[in-house]
Design brief:
By secondary structure, this protein is an alpha+beta fold. The chain has five helices and 14 strands.
Length: 312
């Protein structure tokens, strides 16, 4: 249950949506009937306004001595990571843990799961392992992790151009399609506006797909809107590819590649002088990924929902 002691009634969930998607200032926080202290007001208000529609669980264990390096049994963590209900526990590509903070805070680890029982069992198994240091306590919390609550609508559009920067980041200029309510007849208006989408090098599959794009490709994306209005991509999908690798066809008589004789003129074979229709042919080219892609586990936000969950 959500604790409403901070306010007499639960704030509208629009404040929570705003908080997980953008920077929020103190003057935007709903006024509380009762409050104390001066820290954590934005986070506390967002927490009590959370509608808890898509939920996961995290079992957090604490340590007593914060001055030493954390000791967590890697072998047990590997076992837990293979359980069906856990997620974001370990980066299999780099073979490192994703459950322990890096700073000198009291948290020993936090293991995430899709249900409370799995989270509890995973934490207990880790704490029982000989290679895991002792803990002073453990508790399991309901969370918004892996909910995609920070992402809004799916955006779509046609690529105008792409630019690959030195580190591999990709700038996509796009004619973005937006659906807006009409003020006249009550029907939705389709608005096309030019926008910028950004795919960062750390996003891996997202970046690789973005680098493949060219003008005319129809794509979809999800991400956070930055202060300058650009979309910082977290999920990306190719809908329809434009024609690629166009070339002149082979001669129908001898097989040599025919040449152009100018606009509206027939193509001419340089070898046998045969004339034929003025056309282009295209070699099909497969994109690096089909369907939606997202960054690897260690470069996702905690709120990012794994794509495979949407396929279940």
């Amino acid at each position: 249950m959500i604790d409403h002691k901070y306010l007499e009634s639960q704030p509208d969930d629009s404040f929570y949506r705003m908080t997980v998607a953008q920077n929020v200032e103190m003057n935007q926080v709903p006024t509380a009937e009762r409050t104390w202290g001066s820290h954590g007001i934005i986070g506390a208000t967002a927490a009590v306004s959370w509608p808890a529609q898509l939920v996961t669980w995290e079992a957090i264990a604490w340590r007593e001595d914060c001055s030493k390096n954390r000791e967590i049994c890697e072998r047990t963590l590997s076992v837990i990571d293979s359980w069906q209900g856990t997620f974001m526990s370990r980066d299999s590509r780099k073979g490192r843990s994703l459950i322990a903070p890096r700073g000198n805070c009291p948290v020993l680890f936090g293991v995430r799961a899709r249900d409370e029982k799995t989270a509890n069992n995973a934490a207990k198994k880790l704490l029982q392992a000989e290679a895991t240091q002792s803990s002073i306590g453990m508790r399991t919390f309901l969370t918004n992790q892996a909910s995609d609550d920070h992402l809004g609508e799916i955006y779509s559009g046609k690529v105008i151009s792409t630019k690959i920067l030195s580190r591999g980041h990709v700038i996509i200029k796009i004619n973005q399609t937006e659906i807006k309510d009409s003020e006249n007849n009550g029907e939705d208006d389709v608005v096309i506006k030019e926008n910028t989408w950004m795919a960062f090098a750390q996003s891996r599959d997202v970046k690789n797909l973005a680098q493949w794009f060219q003008a005319g490709d129809v794509i979809k994306g999800k991400g956070l809107i930055s202060e300058d209005g650009s979309l910082h991509l977290e999920k990306l999908k190719l809908i329809e590819a434009s024609e690629r690798n166009k070339r002149r066809p082979p001669c129908e008589r001898c097989g040599k590649t025919v040449k152009s004789q100018g606009k509206n003129n027939k193509l001419r074979c340089p070898a046998c002088k045969n004339l034929q229709e003025n056309i282009w042919i295209y070699n099909p080219q497969n994109p690096p990924h089909r369907g939606w892609v997202q960054p690897p586990t260690d470069h996702r936000r905690h709120l990012s929902r794994p794509l495979k969950w949407d396929q279940e």
